[in-house]
Design a protein that fits this description.
This protein has helices at residues 12-22, 35-40, 76-81, 83-88, 90-97, 102-107, 110-116, 123-128, 227-233, 240-253, 264-284; strands at residues 5-7, 26-29, 48-51, 61-63, 67-71, 133-138, 141-146, 151-153, 156-157, 164-171, 177-184, 195-203, 209-217, 224-225. By secondary structure, the protein is an alpha+beta fold.
């Protein structure tokens, strides 16, 4: 693993200025669980590595009536173990808790999981189910991007040169809502997902679906939502029959790939099974 310089900015403006100076010859590092193996294998070659660990603002967790302001450098262990996050945003806590092992979660960060932009990433699904906003710092200040629009391809995001992610804004869950994230992998959490499904359902006073988010990991080139299934269940009682119908629609409309973990056909079947599980679980949690 060779690079000429390791920089440790302490402020956001110092970080932006370093990113501008080095351009494509620099990479940022947070926990390093994705980046360091790539540097070691020389899959990534850079002149400078910019460590984000001294930017205090990116480590903050602020909870108020509007929601949660989650710093990009907060570790997945903290996200999964925080009793306040678990109580209000259980699916975020679950999604972070499904990333690999204690050893990885102790150093991996929520910002690294999002910016690595792997289609199979688990923790970022916990942000999608709550419709979080990504707060991006650059030369011209901060811009905000809805999380589902942040990903443009495997490993590719809307981040431009000189920009980095400082935090995520996660809204307070709606009244009478429930959410969950389910990971299906052959060897449990230490394995990469064959499929991951997030679901967030809010009911109106008549018990009908008032809002719905159904999101998927490992079934497309980016993390995705099934807007067709979300529209199908809107305004209706979420019966077992409707859940079956939604799961069929999701399975028929997705086109996952065959890889060494699972065939396309197996993935489609598992998407249906885990979509049902996630919808039933989210419904059971509405309160
Ligand atoms: C053994 C092993 C098992 C794993 N299992 C899983 C798993 O089950 N599920 C899963 O989802 N992931 C898994 N991962 C992947 C990884 O641990 C996570 O994606 C982790 O959250 C990455 O966070 P990090 O802080 O280590 O990122 P880093 O490696 O530091 O960074 C990742 C990328 O994001 C960029 N970056 C980091 N922070 C920022 C920022 N704030 N702004 C802009 N760019 C930034 C970096 O430049 C780099 O390109 C696994 C990794 C390993 C090594």
């Amino acid at each position: 693993m060779r690079f000429e310089k390791y920089c440790q900015p302490t402020t956001t403006s110092e970080c932006v200025s370093l990113l501008k100076t080095y351009g494509s010859e620099a990479r940022m590092v947070a926990g390093g669980t994705d980046l360091v193996p790539k540097l070691k294998s020389r899959a990534v070659r850079v002149k400078a590595v910019i460590g984000l660990e001294k930017i205090a603002e990116a480590k903050q967790i602020i909870i108020n009536e509007k929601g949660l302001e989650l710093g990009a450098l907060v570790t997945l262990r903290t996200v999964s173990k925080s009793s306040e996050i678990k109580a209000k945003w259980p699916a975020l806590s679950e999604a972070a808790g499904h990333v690999s092992s204690d050893q990885i979660r102790n150093i991996a960060t929520i910002g690294g999981n999002v910016c690595n932009a792997s289609p199979s990433a688990d923790a970022l699904q916990g942000l999608i189910v709550y419709d979080a906003i990504v707060n991006i710092v650059g030369e011209n200040g901060t811009r905000k991007v809805p999380i589902v629009e942040f990903f443009v391809g495997p490993g590719k995001t809307v981040l431009e040169g000189g920009e980095f992610v400082i935090s995520f804004t996660v809204p307070t869950p709606k009244e009478n809502s429930g959410a969950t994230y389910k990971k299906f992998a052959l060897r449990g959490d230490t394995d990469i997902s064959i499929v991951g499904v997030g679901s967030n359902i809010a009911l109106d006073a008549d018990g009908k679906v008032a809002s719905a988010i159904i999101s998927f990991a490992a079934v497309a080139p980016t993390p995705i939502r099934s807007t067709e299934a979300e529209s199908l269940i809107m305004g209706k009682q979420l019966t077992d029959e409707l859940i079956d119908e939604a799961a069929e629609l999701i399975g028929n409309n997705c086109s996952p790939i065959t890889d060494h973990r699972a065939t396309k056909e197996y993935r489609v079947e598992m998407i249906k099974v885990w979509a049902k599980n996630a919808l039933k679980d989210a419904l059971a949690r509405t309160k």
